[in-house]
Amino acid sequence: MATTHDIARPATRPAFDVARVREDFPILKEKVHGKPLVYFDNAATSQKPGAVIEAERKFYLSECSNVHRGVHYLSEQATRAYEETRSKVQHFINAAEAREIVFVRGTTEAINLVASSYGRKNVAAGDEVVITAMEHHSNIVPWQILCEEKGARLRVAPINDDGELIFEEFEKLLNQRTRFVSVAHVSNALGTINPVRRIIKTAHGWNVPVLLDGAQAAPHLKVDVRDLDCDFYTISGHKIFGPTGIGVLYGKAKVLESMPPYQGGGDMISSVSFEKTTYNVIPAKFEAGTPNIAGTIGLGAAIDYMNTLGFENLAPYEHELLVYATEALSRIPGLRLIGTAKEKAAVISFVMDGLHPHDVGTVLDQEGIAVRTGHHCAQPLMDRFGVPATTRASLAFYNTFEEVDALVKGLEKVKEILG
Amino acid sequence: MSDLHALYQEVILDHSKRPHNFRVMDGATRQAQGYNPLCGDKVRLYVKLEGDRIADISFQGSGCAISTASASILTETLKGKTRAEAEALFQRFHGLVTGKAEEAGKGAELGKLAVFSGVSEFPVRVKCATLVWHTLRSALGEAKETVSTE
User: Fold this and answer.
1) A382/B4 CB distance under 8 A
2) What is the ipTM score, two decimals?
3) Cβ-nearest to A358 among B17, B42, B128
């Protein structure tokens, strides 16, 4: 039987008090099938601190109004709170200006916006778009749609058996026909942290802009878009402890200004007649219609919360948790980790001999342990590793070493039931 | 018996590890592909019809214990049955795993298929149990060749 008692745990972590942090998340007190909830599905969506839940509630209770429209008090307040969040996001990712922040539904919409607006304008027949073999479907399909429409070619940079980008192969794919590079900052299924700085530098050498899909990076690492020098960056609010239905597209002002609108409607225009419409300036040009105001305000509360914790405190703790969990799971006979990159975020995918992830997930669920099982919206990646699916435990800073132990125990139960 | 043990009965685990009729069939008169996008389960079903009777039936594919065992037991059960008998069994089986005692399919004897009664306690796993049955209907009927549970 696999045990974890002899795996060294870091003796003290004065900077990060996980017990206190857990108090901030009401759901972590819940029980599932009579067992304490062990939530290891953070890469799918993260849990929300009380401050986020309260911010949304407060908006609907006493502040509800539309933005950028009324002259009345509530509308002014709502507009201010909405635009304040834009500044919070700007500072959170160190963008140069608030107008470089476009609110969208999430990373999926952000990538679709770029593919459809920037892509349609700049990609023509015979051109090429480069992605990697570890992308989420949301960073594959929008580019496929674009390439099909334009007669362009989608090139896929391969990865090695550890789930790392083979950089030399990526480099070889770039040429004079390359018009765009779109890669995950962190892989959702493997946890691999891509060498994005090198990727961006190389692509810029060809005058090719780069989009970083930051859905899985933003919850774990400090993102600095100016330091990275990426042209676009995308974030899903619900993965950084904010509400669902709100996300961020960052784009360099110059690039955003050069792009045609994505959707037409209210707010994105400066004047409309039946003969001619003049579009608004950025970011309003890309925010047609009434936005997700409550969600945006909730996202602002999530960023405030993240700032009080500080990546400098939570990142080392998460790393310790990842190292511990990796060691503990590796000891289980018949378990194989999928994704063993040297640079990893706290995501652990694995398969077990003769056991299908779907069955593993069902047994773990009965123990109160929530994991994701399946292809993780990355079917080409599953094909690369020759597995139909994996079980994925994705960790957050509110997870504990004891919860990792519970997972190990749960997997023993899996073997007992299904063995 | 706990819900989990009811779901993963010995018979089901046996069939999932050593599925019966797990082979490609030469000379199949009908075949269809089933796919569950939620978990990636894939099944290809081969049927040899002689008149109205299922003379032979086999499958290939990859899936979880529930879907593999369901395919295995389906092939065992349906060999020699008529199309009408297969349809009646589908109705009974569907009622069994969804926890709805349906009038439909009354009179069809579930036999070994009854081991799937535990599935009704796990609504997200119903599709695993029924994938091969939907695939069968596609193979026997005029439906499109690939069925999806979504």
Assistant:
1) no
2) 0.88
3) B128
